[in-house]
What does this fold into?
Amino acid sequence: MARRIRRSSGPLDLRAQAILRAVIEEYVTTAIPVGSQALVDRYHLGVSSATVRNILAELELAGLLDHPHTSAGRIPTDAGYRWYVESIIDATPLPQVEQLMIRHQFGQVEFASEHWFRLAASTIASLTHAAGLATAAKPAAARVRRVDLVSLNDRMASLVVVLREGAIKQALVSLATPEGQADLTSVAAMLNELVDGATADIIETRLARLDPASPHAQLLAQVGERILRVLRDYDRTAVEEVFSDGLLNVMGAPEFAHSEKLRRVFTALENRAYLGQLVGSVAESGRVTVYIGEENEAPDMREVALVLAPYGRPGIAVGVVGVLGPTRLAYPEAIGTVRFVSGLMNELVDHLYH
Amino acid sequence: MARRIRRSSGPLDLRAQAILRAVIEEYVTTAIPVGSQALVDRYHLGVSSATVRNILAELELAGLLDHPHTSAGRIPTDAGYRWYVESIIDATPLPQVEQLMIRHQFGQVEFASEHWFRLAASTIASLTHAAGLATAAKPAAARVRRVDLVSLNDRMASLVVVLREGAIKQALVSLATPEGQADLTSVAAMLNELVDGATADIIETRLARLDPASPHAQLLAQVGERILRVLRDYDRTAVEEVFSDGLLNVMGAPEFAHSEKLRRVFTALENRAYLGQLVGSVAESGRVTVYIGEENEAPDMREVALVLAPYGRPGIAVGVVGVLGPTRLAYPEAIGTVRFVSGLMNELVDHLYH
DNA sequence: GTTAGCACTCTGGTAGGGAGAGTGCTAACT
DNA sequence: AGTTAGCACTCTCCCTACCAGAGTGCTAAC
It folds into this structure.
């Protein structure tokens, strides 16, 4: 929509671009509407405030800026931010210093997925002063690395399934006939032969071929089914878990001083289906994707901006890292940070899936 | 402090008690200061508003009520709430209907600890319309139920430790010499002999007695040490994880309309050390404990009330369930709910630890 | 095309006034 | 002695009025 309006009144000339950029950058840091005088004072534009006013009026006509009221300064519209983001999205490398700092932090924690997801969220949060998000890398189809059966009592066992990417799933199995740990262990060993590296589909066909006369056949089949269910549940869930950090940063922003707005954002974040859909489309696009205000499908998110970057390998395992903040977001930093962290997460995925 | 003031002007007569109770119950539901006329209208006190005014003045002198300003109604002080809580804490059973409802919900989910902790938090949240909290049951000393070694590549393995209470811990082990899954499996089998049901201390002495000449001796020792570290880390952490739900409920309360206060509460909740200390003292007391406003040690919590109930068996495993809300909290419901849920959690602990 | 000048508009803060709610006191009542 | 009616008083809340300040939009000159 923004682009259509802009095009109708011709492309922006360079000076108009510079002024739009200045308004946005000023407003992002101060959170107060920007007047023509303030622009002339703080940016050496080489023109008078009257000229700036003319251009501001044009930009407003083009739908890129807005007026809270007649005699206030300008604030960017969602379309204005959109233009800004388009203009910088391909040129926002994170400064070397920060790249090194982040790498160092990631080197400090164990090279295990959960730690990395958490660290990704908190790193992004602290660098952007907004909320950091990270979803766990989700494989296209889960593959089992190992299973284990732990006896709880003679009628109950705990099934532990370690997935290839390091996630651990647990389920209870109630035993038809009493079994001790020894039996369970040997069944687990047989199952490990059967399931190692396999997806749900593969396991299903292998289970069908089991010899029903073999010892422990019934138990094998039962636990096999349970493993299958664990995998299917896992495959079905679009977003397993969202790691977030720095929601407190967002609470500090003046646009969320009244907690009602905040509350709606939090509600939206609890909606797994919505997040799943978001992750899906970002992963598909394969690029850093920015959703600004009204561009968000969820009504509760109409006052925030999301900067999301996919990571991982399509068809193998994908996840998303991102920033959530007010639409008045430091986009260059957010985009740079998210893109860099997504690169780091790629390394994790490559490592976990060889 | 409250009690000292009260005592100095003598104990409250029955009528004053009834009126104090009425003020508190009225204020808890409406959140607006309560005037003498409103009390006479809504509660059949059998006296005129003038008399009520006299008594309100006494209660204010006793430090149990307060005035926002000269011509406003009364609101309870922390001391007022404290008196109220003392008067009801031993007589707040949860209605049968709700007990059944909760039991039913708990019956729906798998009898596994994590699910129960989550459910405890969300049940409490929905019944009290405040935030529900639950900490995982923490054993006095963790005992290992089972360990497993999963090969990641020939130099790295993932160590999976299943604790008796069902918690799973994971750690990476880098191997001095390359090992395949077969070797790892046999080492895991040996380790299971060694560690089954044992605490860190026991494992330490057993490790010391290992024959250094046995096959895999070095690997055994290395992984043994790693298990030890996992257990020691676990034992050292006072509060492993806090499950919370319904923080959104708290955001809706008028006292938190301005998000700054909310933010401070959230900050305090992120402080593990503080929570650990809280869990410790509640578990030690063995009873439902209520912290009202200023009674909270954390400055950030001075505007909220906490109702906490311990569960589990001292010396074996303990945790805490609770409610967090504004000091203007529905204490009877909160106390009743928390006490009942804590009873359910006892069943879980008894089951997990026989 | 740019700029100076200026009238105009709107906010935000402050002051004043009236309605309403509620108190605290006094004097009369039981 | 405790209770109550009556009433003056106080404070908030809301509305209005007003002013200063900021910023615009227009016009006419450069």
